[in-house]
Amino acid sequence: MVKYTDTGIVSVILEQYSGKRALLLAPLVSGRKGHYKDLFETLVRKGFQQVRVDGRVYDLLSLSPLDRYKPHFIELVIDKVIPDDSSGKRLSESVMSALHHGKGSLSLLLADSGEIRHFSKNLMCPVSGLSFPEPAPYTFSFNSPQGACPRCKGLGMVSKADLSKIIPDMELSIGAGGIKPVGEMRNTLLFRQMEGIAKKYGFSVHDPVKDIPEDALNLILFGSDELIRITGNSSGGGSTSQMVSFGGVISMIEQGPDDGEELSQKRERFVQEVVCPLCNGSRLKEEALGFKIDGLNIAQVSAMEMDQLQLWLAAVEEKLDKRQAMIARDVLKELRERTNFLIEVGLEYLSLDRSTRSLSGGESQRIRLATQIGSKLVNVLYILDEPSIGLHQRDNRKLIDSLKRLRDEGNSIMVVEHDQEMITSADWLVDMGPGAGEKGGRVLFSGEPSVIDQMTPSEIQSLGSYTIDYIKEVRRIETPSQRRPGNGKVLELKGAKGNNLKNIDLKIPLGCFIGVSGVSGSGKSSLVNETLMPILSRHFYRSLMDPLPYDSINGINNVDKLIEIDQTPIGRTPRSNPATYTNVFTEIRKLYGETQDAKIRGFKAGRFSFNIKGGRCEECKGAGVQVIEMNFLPAVNVLCKSCNGKRYLPDTLAVKYRGKSINDVLEMTISQAMRFFENVPAIFPKLKALDEVGLGYVKLGQSSTTLSGGESQRVKLATELARYSTGNSLYILDEPTTGLHFEDVRVLLEVLQRLVDQGNTVIIIEHNLDVLRSVDYLVDMGRRVAPRVEPLLPQEPRSR
Known about the structure:
Layout: H1 6-16, E1 22-33, H2 37-45, E2 50-53, E3 56-59, E4 71-81, H3 88-101, E5 105-110, E6 116-120, E7 123-124, E8 131-132, E9 157-161, H4 163-166, H5 189-201, H6 214-222, E10 224-233, E11 239-246, H7 249-255, H8 261-270, E12 271-275, H9 286-289, H10 298-302, H11 306-316, H12 322-344, H13 361-375, E13 381-385, H14 393-408, E14 412-416, H15 420-425, E15 429-433, E16 442-447, H16 449-453, H17 457-463, H18 466-471, E17 490-496, E18 504-509, E19 513-518, H19 524-541, E20 552-554, E21 561-564, H20 578-581, H21 584-593, H22 596-601, E22 625-630, E23 633-639, H23 650-653, H24 662-666, H25 670-676, H26 684-692, H27 709-722, E24 729-734, H28 742-757, E25 761-765, H29 769-773, E26 777-781, E27 796-797
Parallel strand pairs: 13-14, 19-25, 19-26, 21-24, 24-25
Antiparallel strand pairs: 1-4, 1-5, 2-3, 2-4, 5-6, 7-8, 9-12, 10-11, 15-16, 17-18, 17-20, 22-23, 26-27
Domain UvrA interaction: 7-108
InterPro entries: ABC_transporter-like_CS, P-loop_NTPase, UvrA, UvrA_DNA-bd, UvrA_inter
Domain UvrA DNA-binding: 162-255
C-alpha cells in the first residue's frame, strides 16, 4: 500500500515518464451500472472533451448513452502531456485538477504502450489502483458508518425471503391463498394490483400458480418499475382506473415497516436471516478487510476463540519488523492481559465476534467479571447472581480461582449461588430458608463453612437447613439402582454437521431418561436444540424452524409428539399467572358460575375472568396494578386505587364459594388451594401436579413476571403432568437445573422420572452431576471445546 503527495506525483511522472506521450485520467465511475447521460452532459458544459469508458477513449460530443444494465468504468481525460522540465507548471496544474475530479486519485495512461500507472493521495494498491481512505479506529468498527458493511449495516446477516415458504403449494391459485403471506383473495389494493398484472400477462388469479407465466410470477414476487393499470370502484358508484408500479410481495415482507404486529409475524415466518453475501459475515467494508497483520484481517482475528487468540498474540510480535513491533508493544500487552482474563473465567471457547444475544446470563456475568479483574480496583464490593450458570465443572474451578484472585486484590465478593463447590469455597456462608416463598425469609446460618464441619448431627438437624443437609450428605439425591433398557425403539440422527459438529451420528433409545453432557461450547445445543428439535418440530407441527445441516433421521414415527420445556416466562403481563397457564382457573371460574350467589345475580363463568370486560375492574383492566411509564426509566407498577389490587368489581367479589371470593382464591398458595378444592375432580389434579413439582409456596394468582426461570419451567412441567399422556412423547430440556437448589433438583428429577415411567423419552442437556448420575443413557460431547470437538463418545447405558 502506497500514497503520494501532489508534488510527489509530479516528481514521479517527470522522473519516470519524461518524453513519453501520456493521458492524465481522473476516475469518476468504478464498476457501477447506468447510462450516465447526465454525467457526460455535465462534463461537456465544464469544457472537457474526452472520457475513457471501459478501456477505450471517446469524444464526449459523439458519445451515446451507455448500456444501463452493465457495470462501467469511466475516467475523465484531464490532459494529454509529454512530461519534461519545460512542462512542469502545466503538469502540476493538470495533476491538481485530476486529483480534484478523481477525489484524491488519478491514473497515467501511456499512449504508445497502453501501460497505466495509478496514483492516490490516500492509501492505494499500486497494481489495481484500489484506493483506501486513511485508516482510523472507526474504519475497523462495524458500529460506525465508516467501517460497517453497506449491505448489512454491520450486522453480518441480511434478510432473505424463502420462496419455498412463500409458495408452498404450486397447485393453489393466488385467489385461493397460493401466495402464503398475502392469504386468500380480498378486495384490497394488493389484490387489485395482482389482478392488473394478470390481465396484462393473460392469466387469471384463479389459475394454479404453476400455470402463471414466469415473467408475471417474477413481477408479483420481486416487483418492477413497470406501470400496471388497476381498476376499482369510486365513491359515486362508477369505476376508476390508474397506473401504478408494484413493489412485489417479497419487498413487502423484507422492507415493510416494523410497527405492524402482523407484518412482524410474516417476517419471522417467511424471511430467514442469511450471511451477508457482500462481507461474508465479517460485518465490515472491503477496505477495512484489506489491512492485515500476519496475513490475517481484523475479522479473521475476531473469529478466533480465546485460546487460539492467546497463542496468536504470543507469537505475532516476532513476525513484525522493528518499527511495527515498537508501535504494537503496548497494544499487544493490553490484548494479552485481557485475553488471559477471559480465559481465566472459563470463556476460552468464546470468540470476539460472538453476538451478545447468544450469551447465557452466566457468560455475560463472567465477561463483566473479566473486565473488573483487569481494572485493578480495590475496596470494591462485587455482587454476582449465579455466575456458574451453564458452566461445566472444569470451567467452574477456573471461575472460583478468578473470584479468589479478585478477593486477594482487596475486594469483597458476594455470590448468590446453588453450586456446592462455590458454596464450600466461600470464606463466609449465609444460608436463607428454611423453605421457599412464605416459608422462607430467615437466616439459618451465617459463618465460616469450616464451622459446619465441626457440627454434631443434632446441631445440623436443629438448623433446619436443606443446604447444609446436602453439604453434609444428611440428604442426598440417590442414584437409581436400576437403569431402564428402553422400549426397543430408537430415534437415529445421522450426519449432523452444523456449527462445530463433525458429521456425527446420534442414536437415541426411546423410553429412556437421556443425558447430554460436555464442556461449554462442545456442541450440545447445536446437536439437540438446533438440529434434532427443529427436525421434529417441522415434522409434528409444521414449524418454520430451519435445522442445522444433517444427512438423515430415522425412527421419527416412533414418537407421537415433541415437547420443549424451557425456562422462558409463562407470560409477559401481570395478568398471566400459574392458574391461567395451567387452565385450572377456567375450572375455578366455572365452579363460581355455578354457585347460588352467581345464579341469583345472573353471573356466568365469564364474569369471573379478569381478562375480559364484565366483572373485572376497568381501572386496571383486571391486572390489580397500574403501570406508570417513566421517561428514560423502567415502568413502575403501583397498586390499583380503585380495586385495591383485588382485580374485580365489588359485586363480583360478593360471590363466595365456601366463604371465599374469587380474589381470595387467587391469593391462596397452591398448597392451600389444593386443600381447599380437594373434593373438586376438575381442579384438584392440576393443583396437585403443581404442588408435586415443588411450587406449593407460589400463589395461584402470582404474576408470571415475578416467577424465576426455574419456577416457570416447573409450571410447564406440571401442566404436562396433568395432561393425558400418550406414553410416546419426547421431552427436551436445556439445563433445567439452572437456578435450582439441591432440594429443587431432587423434586425435578422425581417429576422427570415419572414422565419416563409413563413410557415417554426425556432428553436433558446438563452439567449437574447429580442429574447425570440419574440418567439411563449418557451422551458426552467432545473431550475439548470447539472447534476441536471430537465425535460422540461411546453411547452406552450408564453402569451402576
